[in-house]
Amino acid sequence: MRGRRPAAAAAVLLLAAASGGAQQGRIVTSLTLFAGTGEGLWRSTDWAGSWEAVHGRTSGVRLDGIGAVRSIRTVGTRVWLAGEGGLYFSDDFGETWAPLSLVPGIGEALPSLWPEADPTVFIGTGDGVQRSRDGGRTFERTALGGVAVRRLEWPGGALVVACDRGLLVSRDEGRHFEGPGKGLPEGPVRAMALSSYFSADPVLFAAPASGGVYRSSDGGASWAATGLQGERVGDMVWLGPFLYAAGESGFYRSQDAGESWTRLSASPGSPTRLMFPLAPAAGLEAFLATEQGLFRTADAGEHWTPAGFAGHAVLTVATFPPPEPARGKKPSR
Fold this sequence. Notes:
By secondary structure, the chain is mostly beta strands. It has no helices and 29 strands.
């Protein structure tokens, strides 16, 4: 599992603590990765050179009952962990944990990027989307129920949901949902990618379970096919001018917003999550979670090498972001 580490990974990130429970000035190296599997949470501190199961310190809550880990979200020093056994939270980079909610079967957890100013947390389950106003301690149902949720994104004022009913958008934090829009095939949407400036530029891409990629330029109201027909895409990432799609048979890149695609390599396995850990500063290094293990590329997907869990399904992968999002207040408009 060992390989060349990216030059950017040799640096350390000095992350100011985002809450009183974390140590001020704690140093976390950019080599730290998390992976979620059917057996729980795993952590690597050497850029996937080796992995250890994370059970939680004996002085805190143990994670033995979490079951399959399907979602890991990191904001500054904080980690939200969601899985079959509920929602757990750490404010010290995953060292100690506290159970927030025992809602079973959580597939997605999505906190605010500014948790001290806005403690809202959304979760996606097999029965729709729920919302918390108190950091994940209590939840209430939204208008979307009775449907399995695949992905959640919350760019600015819109909540975007990929689910078994298609791709839906709420502009009032879950009180009402719009969609699926005209032109998108009926059925589940497995993955999506949104413009970095979605509120001003409401472009998004969706990958339905039936195959292919579809593009909307009006926030999901209407859709048009934009290639990869017949390819079942498991995840997409949009980095500046490049749109990446991880399919079951191949890994692809578009340099023109989906108008054309280049097949970079064969897929190392049926993909579940794609992560570029050094983005937006660098876009060559990526990790791909698949049903055959975790894989890594150092050249934006042209070649893949094993990065752990050979022959075992990896459900998600995550790392710590730069410190800017966790400053305790929303940016000025």
